[in-house]
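Ligand: adenosine monophosphate. Inputs:
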Amino acid sequence: MNVLVIGAGGREHTLCWKLKQSSKCGRLYAAPGNAGTASCATNLSIKVNDFEGIKKAVIEHEIKLVVVGPEEPLVNGIHDFFLEDPELASVGIIGPEKAAATLEGSKAFAKEFMIRHQIPTAAYAEFTAGTVSDGERYLELSKPPYVLKADGLAAGKGVLILEDLEEAKAELRRMLLEKKFGNASSKVVIEEFLSGIELSCFVLTDGKSYLTLPMAKDYKRIGEGDTGLNTGGMGAISPVPFVTAAFKEKIDKEIVKPTVEGLQKDGMPYKGFIFIGLIKVGDDAKVIEYNVRLGDPETEVVIPRLKSDLLSLFIAVHEERLGEFILDVEPQTAATVMAVSGGYPEAYQNGKTILGLNENEMIFHAGTLDSGSEIVTNGGRVLAATSFGEDFKAAVERSYLTLEKISFEGMYYRKDIGFDL
Ligand code: AMP
Ligand code: GLY
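Predicted complex:
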């Protein structure tokens, strides 16, 4: 079976790497891919939102399954585009239809979904430009820190957590009246602040049955000790030591099962990954957010731990036979450490020569380009070095050893992944 993976990050390289190991995998393509995906797939120069371009490639290369990495094409309706086109309708798509993708595309929609299906989450209220003064009053009656969320997709920057009431009110006005995040902040969710430790839960579903993948924890801030600006993720580990069997069962019963059943009850078909961002508050788990894709860099630790054949799982999702499967998971811990460009997540330069890459190690490319003669940096996040170990400390140490042999101008990585565990 010929397969196409859409996207260009470490998540997509990891998916290609794993899919290529399947005996069922015929020709494998990535669009647009990076220098890492080029080592296990054929890169196609097509943008992730160019649905017509993707259609042409699917027909030309007789692709039977499309795995959608990032959220944007899903929120824009790529799955619906395939279903509505007679030439594409039989192609399997891993990623939900537009209706369910709204779980990531609109925070207000996700909150309403959680309330409707009694899924534990932070208390909240939503406001628009017409109700900005109600929003200010809501803030006055709330306790700090104040959590303000732009409703729509805002490239991971739409959440503000503020200590000062006046600043929170000013930011609310900026979001609603001055469109700080464009249309994404034409609606704002104000949420109760939850204090606890975060984790990422990934579910693969065919809309009827589901499999919960190994839990993971990512490290989002640029600086050690979780300081400084938010990034797309500086490292991750899986499993998560504080997730006991009992806690996992609780997550399943109170959150995962009601989520999948809620999608069914609401008539929202879902074939793909659900990424549930959780926070452990005392002994309870609450949902911070839904994403309709895999996390990055969590994928770089979760997928390598799957011993099951990923393409067989995807085919089962397409054919709605996922209920027949039991996941086979590597018990060792996986860790990944992300090497980023100097300056990231603010301005940085591309095109720096990367030296020391070794094909025998699990190095997933996040932002790289094959210039023809060398591999150069092509993004803020550049490479994720994944390793296994008896525990997260051993795994992380191995990833540091891998990264010590790699270099590019301005290269930076955190040396404290797992520090809080
Ligand atoms: P998001 O963009 O929804 O992933 O949110 C970004 C980050 O903000 C999350 O990873 C959390 O660290 C934090 N966050 C979001 N909502 C809350 C909340 N209600 N309480 C505490 N922290 C939150
Ligand atoms: N690592 C978090 C995300 O992918 O959104």
